[in-house]
Amino acid sequence: MPIRNIIWDMGGTLIDTYPAVDRTFANVARAHDIDVPLDAIERSTRTTSIANTMTALAAEHSIERAEFERAYAALKTAWRASPPPVMAGAEAVIAAVQAAGGKNIIVTHRDRESAQALLDATGLDIDGLICAPDGHARKPDASMHRLALEMFGLDPAETIAIGDREIDATAALGLGVQPLHFDATGAASAADQDAASQDAAQVREISSLLDALEWIDRDSARVGMLATEPYLDSDPALLAERHRARRLAHQLDLLDPDDTDAATTLLQQLFGRLGDGTRIIPPFRCDYGPHIRFGAGSFVNFNCVFLDVAPITIGKRVLIGPGTQLLTAGHPLHVETRASGLEWGKPITIGDDVWLGGGVQVLGGVTIGAGTVVGSGSVVTKDLPAGVIAVGNPARVVREVPSEPDI
Q1: Cα(64)–Cα(188) distance, rounded to whole angstroms?
Q2: Which of 108, 109, 120, 385 is 20 to 30 A removed from 343 (C-alpha atoms)?
Q3: Structural fold of domain 5-13+85-211
Q4: What is the Cα–Cα distance from 87 to 12, expressed in whole angstroms?
């Protein structure tokens, strides 16, 4: 079975945080006229954890642990403006997962505020974030990985977990998730690794996930569909995915309107990404779900239909009125070809702060720029620029959005 999803460790795997952390801790010791070899700090941060390294350095050199904590906090603040580099190849792997309809989930010991700040600063497009300080047991306990599988509806057989430490492999193995041990330096010997790490496939470069492991089924109907190639919707795998989407949508319909936690869980399983604070009012229907990605704080009113045979990307704080339809699907105009069942799709992209009025239809291949307003009942057949008001069938720009508050 091809792999569709990745559970990522964050620091040291997805983002190269270690060198800056190592230097920061060395500088704290140097301020006390203590020269701690950098390679000793490196071994500790990479084989235990940053927290354990602070504790060990404080005890060994009689330095208050709080000094290391303050220096580390200052480093995390500095990363908001000047983040550490993303590991080479990681962005391409993330994009490939999403292009195949999969999800990228981060499981980290880092607190949510600093983790989100790193994501914002690096621009990484991640589908979910689980942080131990939110009340979850730390790795090697499997709780966070189990939560990732349950919360985002990941099939363990279609999921890999990659991390740079033994605890990442240990957390994954017991759940039926294939662990990968990322060792960028190749320095970790068998003696340095526990049984879990030795059972994990070794990865020296993140980009090797694209080719060497051949974990994406590049010939599937889904991949061709998402690449806007003609496909047959009678493909058994696609039929199963559409059934899954209808089942989740039906469950959403049956929920008590006050049970927002259950609704969020279902929507996280249905969509490729559900931004924080985004709300969907049922009934809602879509073809597949994983190809729909929301930014934070968006709102979809009831009776909306999203045909996501191609990617639908919706930005932050987007308002979508009742009865709106986002229609990526297309069919041949030629009668015999259409009768053969062939169809295709073109992606739809909705920018941040867009407002689509009730009953709007957006056709495949359309991008709507940030801040634009589309009047109720309009049919959008071509791209609309940012910051305009458009109405009609086909929708045409009538003026710019107000530059001053209008209420």
Answers
A1: 30
A2: 385
A3: Rossmann fold (3.40.50)
A4: 8
- Report the SS3 class of residue 268: helix
331 is catalytic: yes
Instruction: Given the residues 32, 61, 331, 334, select the one marked as catalytic.
Output: 331
Contact assessment for residue 87 and residue 163, using Cβ atoms and an 8 Å cutoff = no
Burial of 4 (0-12, 13-18, 19+ CB in 10 A): buried
Q: Residue 194 — pLDDT band, cuts 50, 70, 90?
A: low
Cβ-in-10-Å burial (0-12, 13-18, 19+) of 320 comes to buried
User: How far from 56 is each of 12, 22, 39, CA to CA, in Å?
Assistant: 19, 13, 15
State the pTM of this model. Answer: 0.84
CA–CA dist 240, 232 (Å, integer): 14
Distance CA 232, CA 332 (A): 12
**Burial of 111 from C-beta contacts in 10 A (0-12 / 13-18 / 19+):** middle
Q: Quote the DSSP letter at residue 306.
A: E
The answer to whether residue 106 scores a pLDDT higher than 80 is yes
With bands split at pLDDT 50, 70 and 90, how would you rate the model's confidence at 197?
low
Instruction: Domain 234-400: give its CATH architecture.
Output: 3 Solenoid (2.160)
